[in-house]
């Protein structure tokens, strides 16, 4: 019985079914925001909402039963995440004074899509592992922003647009330049007063936009390569374990054959 439940939990079609249900639910939730629903559609929506809740309870129950011990279910952070999402969406807030909160809680069901797809879980794990390196890059980026903002607030403070009137506004202006949102207008305005200022803007774009963005990409690619290497090692480890089992069976068979031959000789 437990083996069948484990197969159901690990089966691809069960994961795909959960994904389809979440996507359909998310689509209906999005259409619901387009306007007021008639009483018929409203009743249908509540039925769908309850059906999705029941399916999530069923899925969580399957995952918990598949574990040999119930506590093992909570050892996985993704299982804990699933459990919290399901509990939150089941809170009886619809008929209370927190109806708006209850409607907002429905959005959390869509987050189940992260755990329904093993590929998405792997990508999220990869991004979480990349956070320390990303934080270091962000700190370096902030230092560059800080230096350029100080320079800009001193040199371009008198420009009529007021984009450099103080340090904080200069930081926002630099972020605008980083996103390439009409950054040439900012540069041309500065060049009318300071013709050499193009050096300031071009150097900032090269350092902040090109160099740092490529660093972000390099970190993510590096974590993806580590993930792929780990998967390859796990597959090789599983293959070695299978080979070991096969070798053990071969050795036991040879021992049995040898024993049978010796018995025949003794009888003969």
How would you describe the overall organization of this protein?
The protein has 268 residues and is mainly alpha-helical. It has two domains: 2-116, Four Helix Bundle (Hemerythrin (Met), subunit A); 128-234, Helix Hairpins (Orthogonal Bundle), CATH 1.10.287.70. 82% of the residues lie in helices and 0% in strands. The chain has helices spanning 2-10, 12-32, 39-66, 70-73, 77-90, 99-105, 112-116, 118-155, 167-178, 183-193, 198-267.
Write the layout of secondary structure elements.
Elements: H1 2-10, H2 12-32, H3 39-66, H4 70-73, H5 77-90, H6 99-105, H7 112-116, H8 118-155, H9 167-178, H10 183-193, H11 198-267
Helix pairs in contact: 1-3, 2-3, 3-5, 8-9, 8-11
> Can you identify the CATH class of the largest domain?
Mainly Alpha
CATH superfamily of the largest domain: Voltage-gated potassium channels. Chain C
Give the proportion of residues in helices. Answer: over 70%
Head-to-tail CA distance between termini: 49 Å
Structural class: mainly alpha
For the biggest sheet, the summary is: none
Shape: flat
At CATH level 2, the architecture of the largest domain is Up-down Bundle
Number of strands: 0
Counting structural domains, the number is 2
CATH topology-level name of the largest domain: Four Helix Bundle (Hemerythrin (Met), subunit A)
* Rg measurement, Å: 30 Å
User: What's the average pLDDT?
Assistant: 79
Q: Which series of helices and strands comes N to C?
A: HHHHHHHHHHH
Q: Per DSSP, what share of the residues sits in E-state strands of 2 or more residues?
A: under 5%
The number of helical segments is 11
Unreliable segments (pLDDT under 50, ≥5 consecutive)? none
